[in-house]
What does this fold into?
Amino acid sequence: MGFFDKLKQGLAKTRKTLIENTEALFRGRTVDEGLLEELEEVLIMSDVGPQAASAITGSLREKVRQGKASNTRDLKNALKEEIRRMLKEGTGIMCAGEKPYVVLTVGVNGVGKTTTIGKLARRFTDQGFSVTLAAADTFRAAAIEQLEIWAQRAGAQIVKHRSGADPAAVAFDAVASAKAKNVDVVIIDTAGRLHTKTNLMEELKKIKRVVSKEAPSAPHEILLVVDATSGQNAINQAKIFNDAVGVTGIALTKLDGTAKGGIIIAINKELNIPVKLIGVGEAVEDLQDFNPAEFVDALFD
Ligand code: GDP
Ligand code: GDP
Ligand code: MG
It folds into this structure.
């Protein structure tokens, strides 16, 4: 299955609520204020978020007024265009310039951090880059073992300490090891438990501090992983992590598992952080660079 078909399949549930409900709403209707109001409700129900839903219908209202969307077919095209405009161009994740290129991965428990790291590592090694993974989720031994399996699959190296060890020390050693071995990319896994005795945000700040001691421009990317099935909660998580450590990009996982993929529109509207990666399944190739044009095509066409 091709890349675009994977994306399309991954968005099937969202397509079913967002697009099919829109089409059902538009059937046999003329374009008027009542229709626009009902459309706003459909958007909100797909987790597009109240701000984005209101902005989208506002723009559509203006197009209707200008005579640019006088029938439902034109209105649907205008809707696609408005959503497309709202999605900021992502840059994907590239390891450019600095060596090692250090990616610090953060996010609450279970969102898909370790899986995303595994997929990303595999992508880099496929591109011919060498990769070191840092097992800085030292909270449970199982977390270290899970990352080891991904390292093997991806052909990446791993730096690990005993479970319970200081996460900052693991991250530091991984960067030092990568420097010594001339490795291209370091990806740091972290814990995600918000309610433990050690404050997660302080732990992440310390990792950041310690890593920049070894490589002054690192970490180059602070990738927040959020789970699309968590709906509006994803927005709250992004705000908390961004305040604490300064997030440079978002990986939105599990889009395949939700009908509320509209959350990506809310994220783009409400946060000033680009979505760089999307997860549309559990296989390696299901981690894709986020491309707004492809995304709306997969959703609408
Ligand atoms: P972590 O606690 O943040 O490290 O999360 P994990 O990487 O352990 O992932 C938790 C679960 O989410 C695992 O069962 C993954 O296979 C699953 N997962 C991660 N990304 C995706 C995705 O894009 N789609 C689906 N369907 N499952 C995913
Ligand atoms: P503090 O523990 O809160 O005082 O934070 P620090 O910034 O002093 O660093 C804390 C941890 O990071 C230490 O316990 C070390 O394990 C690790 N760390 C910091 N600097 C180094 C270093 O130069 N080498 C290694 N291996 N680890 C370091
Ligand atoms: Mg994990």
